Amino acid sequence: MTSTTSPKTGARRPTSTAPPSPGDRGRMARPSGLPWIMPAFVLVVGILYYCIGETGYLSTLDWDGTSPTPTSVGLGNYEQILQDPIFWQAIWHTVIFFIVTFTAQTAIGFVFAALLHSKVKLGTLYKVIVFTPVVIAPATMAPVFRQMFAADGQLNWTLDHIGLGFLSQPWLAQSSTAMPVIMFITVWNFTGLTFVLYYAAMGQIDPETLEAARTDGASNIRTLVSIVWPGVRGTTVALGMLSVIGALKTFDVPYLVTIGGPNYATEFLGTYIYRISIPSAHVGYGAALSIMLLILALVGAIAVAVRANRKDSETGV
Questions:
Q1: Over the range 219-253, which residues count as b (16 or more CB within 10 Å of their CB) and which as e?
Q2: Which pTM value belongs to this model?
Q3: Which terminus of the chain faces fewer neighbouring Cβ atoms within 10 Å, N or C?
Q4: Do 86 and 264 touch, CB atoms closer than 8 A?
Q5: Distance in angstroms (rounded) separating the CA atoms of residues 88 and 77
Q6: Residues 119, 121, 127, 128: what is their CA dihedral angle, to the nearest 10 degrees?
Q7: What does DSSP assign to residue 31?
């Protein structure tokens, strides 16, 4: 034990020179967390961001993907995109697709979750039935829906045999009905995911709050609207962000069912990027479309989050 002199009082105060305790030595010898996050860091930065940077570079080229001497065009591909009517048509399809599918999935998933949180017989069986479409690969279900909605498919056959033959039409071969079919398939495919998230969120609502509402005479509808729906708002915001990104990335269902047709009626950015980059061999232009897709996805997700945070601040949540 040694002592030091206080600069204010001149008095001596003891200073400990004892060796650190075993606990202190353990804390000093403990390694940092950097080695544990390095694999994920390398994966994200070394692959994801590298690929984004490489795509950004390719977007400045006029290249077919195989030529050893690509031509640099600077921002020419982006200028061409702004004048491309198919690009704007794909954007419009994405907006309509997002609005319809997000609204339908949110409403159906919320209602299913509320119903199955009540005392329903065979509830587990219903949960499995609702969630099953989520795990079915689009490549598996696409041929089924193509056959179902074909001009001589099961849907038209059913309409003919129940006296509604006047409604029969080539659903996938005309622009007015091809997009609604794609929306229907998407809602059928992903409503189960919305249902599961809402079901889990409803389980976190305080049961005493619901019981108090029932004691005060609130009806089931009133309880859903005033308590349950605000209670799962965070899940709705998350689903909104995922739906924005998912709508912009839509590829498998429209490509496998309609190949973007007829007459670009079901063309999305994903299908357009594929057709431009692979069959048409305009890799530079396809890369520029991919960068635009990334920008739109980020802007859309941020817009949903900012809107949600602003509403939270207004309501004091």
A1: eeeebbeebbeebbeebbbebbbbbbbbbbebbbb
A2: 0.82
A3: N
A4: yes
A5: 15
A6: 160
A7: P
